[in-house]
Amino acid sequence: MSDLETRQLRYFVTVAEELHFGKAAVRLGMAQPPLSKAIRDLERQLGVQLLFRTTRKVGLTPAGERLLADASVALDAVAAAERRARRAGEKSPVLRLALKADFDAGLLPRLLRAYDAQPVELLFGGRGEQVKALRDGRADVALVMTPFDERGLDAEPLVTSRRVVALAASDPLAARPCVWLADLVGRTLPDGAPAEGGGLELPKGPLDHLDIAKIFTMIEVGDTVWVVPEWVADRFPRPGTAFLPVVDAEPATLAVAWPAESRSPAVAAFVRTAQEVADVRSRETAS
After folding, report:
1. Model's pTM, two decimal places?
2. Per-residue CA distances from 214 to 9, 102, 111 (Å)
3. Domains of the chain with bracketed CATH
């Protein structure tokens, strides 16, 4: 029987993410030769090749791709167990809520006023970081946009909204009552992706550091557009930006998510409160 160690998995995941032994060694704070040896030892232990190596390239084999997916989950679970054990011993427990700033559909202030089971600590992060924070134990509950990787998580939808495109008020499309995704051909999203793909949420990659005000400035001075939930348009009206419904874009849904194995009364109370607050918002919007 093969007893894998977290150290081995951490080494492999780092190499698999970097696909470069030198860069992986720097991340791990170790020399490259022992890292290469550790990966070879892991392959011998498992009896499969995890990586293919040439003089110019490192890549994942099918076995390596499978191990990367499972090892990442396993390492998150170990980190989560450590964090949750420590927090269980805290004298003054708090509920940690992961979310992306300005993507709460306007629920956050009401939610924090209505929830009184525990003090709440807000963990702000970029696109996709909320799910990882749930998995590795940094967060107890999160507000997330669907779809997302729900493995090991439970979730309940809170708010569903049509999507609109934010474009310069001077754009010829701004005179229309609505647009289709095909109308956006030739324009780009803030991360450079084709706009007709209908990207949702803040851009990934090198633009993660941009705040919403900077993105709107990009929209107003060029061919950049941004497809967002309608609640973003409601929150950020700007004279230089027009917001038009995108007829064939999938609706945007905000959900509350938490680890499936959670038995925390505080988490259960937060989920109930979030649903109640969302129901009130829905009735107000409909009236």
Report:
1. 0.70
2. 39, 14, 28
3. 6-84 (1.10.10.10), 91-155+252-286 (3.40.190.10), 163-245 (3.40.190.10)
